[in-house]
Amino acid sequence: MLATRGNHFETFNQLPSASSAIFFIAGMYLRTIKSFWFFYLLSIVIDLSTSYVRGQLGSCLTVAYPALALSYAAMFAGGFYGRANWLNKSTLLNILQISTALVTASAIAFFISNGSFYLLSGYFIDPSLNEYILRVQKYFFRSVSNPIFYVASVIMIDWVFNRFILPYATKNNVIHSKT
């Protein structure tokens, strides 16, 4: 998150932000409200720290900023409910489930963060539905597609682990159960 959050670091400004993907992945694997709040507070610390280093508040730090908690909560919930179950479902069903959860959560997160910024930030005088639709057309696809690379990478690692490593380790008693 630190390396990809906005344009905080010049050397990493070509990477898409991993923030929403991190919340989705945390929902899938960490699955606790504490992990959600940890990453949310981390995002705030990153934003405030970089603003301090720059000597000015970033354009994202407006009265709409707290709505990011809801946006990230949508991603966390999407990951929580879209979690794969490689042992009891086919690979195709798992991929469909994760993909549906990721796209749905990303769309909800986009409309929460983008809509709140548009309505509350103070950057848009006299907001209108037509102008907002134009903004959605401009930013929606990129925003929804940003987390795909990160989530797909993690899912691939998870699938390989569950498909090949875990069965091998279990079969050969590499993993010992607690009794």
TrEMBL record:
Keywords: Membrane, Transmembrane, Transmembrane helix
Transmembrane segments: 37-57, 63-81, 93-119, 139-161
The name this protein goes by in its record: Uncharacterized protein
Origin species: Psychromonas marina
